[in-house]
Amino acid sequence: MTIAYNGFSYAGFQRQACTNDNKDTPAKSDGWRKRPHPQSNKSKSKTPITVQQQIENALEQWSNLSIVTLRVRGAGRTDKGVHAAGQVVAFDIPLSLLQVPPSSEGETNTNEEVLSTNALPLLQEAYQMLRNSNGTNEDSQRTYRDPSMPNFLDLWQIRRAISTRLPSDIVIKSVWLRTEVPFEARQGIACKTYIYKIRFRSLRYITTKDGTKTVHPICNAGPHLLRRIHDQNNVWLCPWPLDESFLHSACEAFVGVHNFYNFVHREEHKKRAMCSNGSKADSIEKDYTTDLFSFDVHLVKDGGEGDMNRSTSTPPIYNATFTLKAKGFHRQMVRNLTGYVVDISRGLQLLDNIPSLLKETSDSDQETASRINAAPSCGLCLEHVLYERYHFMKATSMVK
């Protein structure tokens, strides 16, 4: 599937170890689906809710299959508060459940899972359509799937059935079916695209009566004047004024093959160090070298202040959209890169420091670590995932 979600209410995409997990319990019983009484203490869950957990719950209710059978997995492990517009999610439906009809004589195996009456006809129809259209809805020989082709299947009935069981902040954009080589959402990725949105006041100076230059007072007004009625916790309202002239050059300095060790979350450093078998220097160079294909920024003047936009003396407000593309990103890498670019534009860091930060790998260098400030998660969005083999630019639900 291709899904989009607002990550504000979730502790990331991936199911966490402390979340409610009935992995070995098939979803056959109706009792577990009953909503707890509002006054019950059990209804007040203290465990974090993730996007994967919501999808698994919806698929369980629709298909009547267990989490183990469905094996839900995503292309990216977005962190807490991070959004997605093109997250790729795959899940399994055993082909045997579609081909073998229920026994009319009551000879059923109680240990074998059975598809629900809601899911079975839709999946059987989709599978039959797939077989009638040359056995697949994607052509691995083509570099792009033409939507006008007869075997381009929009399984909107399945998409609707799952969507009705999801909260409003998770949207299914498309559902696809495959029966060939198993599809793994995290494998064979050619490019991931992340975007980060910031709204900020441009840094401007005024001349006082005594002839000295000082920052315009409105530049220090904080983020409150940057709020807009249609904001959905998907943009960072930068509390500092920025010099937009530094943004493009700072972004370009990171493009290419570099060692991004200093721009990765320190928890990932610890995990890699524990799993490393070789020398520390070799493992760092191998694990954190990334080819950043592009790092662009697009600036648009904001019109949210009405008549104030016509004033030439008032510093303008900009909406900045950063676009980063690479085959893969390390934990918190996009937020750290964006945060450092912001620090350069606010005068906290120097553009000339970037080359040295892309070489230093000392985990004990506290000064280096203190230079990197991560941008908040609210402005980050997983925009698109492109695969080396599957170029239909959609997500895939798989039948094995």
Automatic annotation (TrEMBL):
Residues 38-49 have a biased composition (Polar residues). Residues 250-388 form the Pseudouridine synthase I TruA alpha/beta domain. It is an enzyme of class 5 (isomerase). It holds the Pfam family PseudoU_synth_1. GO terms for molecular function: tRNA pseudouridine(38-40) synthase activity. Residues 21-33 have a biased composition (Basic and acidic residues). Residues 18-49 are annotated as: Disordered. InterPro entries: PsdUridine_synth_cat_dom_sf, PsdUridine_synth_TruA, PsdUridine_synth_TruA_a/b_dom, PsdUridine_synth_TruA_C, TruA/RsuA/RluB/E/F_N. One of its GO terms (biological process) is tRNA processing. Coiled coil: none annotated. It comes from the Eukaryota. It catalyses: uridine(38/39/40) in tRNA = pseudouridine(38/39/40) in tRNA. PANTHER family: PSEUDOURIDYLATE SYNTHASE, TRNA PSEUDOURIDINE SYNTHASE-LIKE 1. Belongs to the tRNA pseudouridine synthase TruA family. This is tRNA pseudouridine synthase. It comes from Cyclotella atomus. The lineage of its organism: Eukaryota, Sar, Stramenopiles, Ochrophyta, Bacillariophyta.
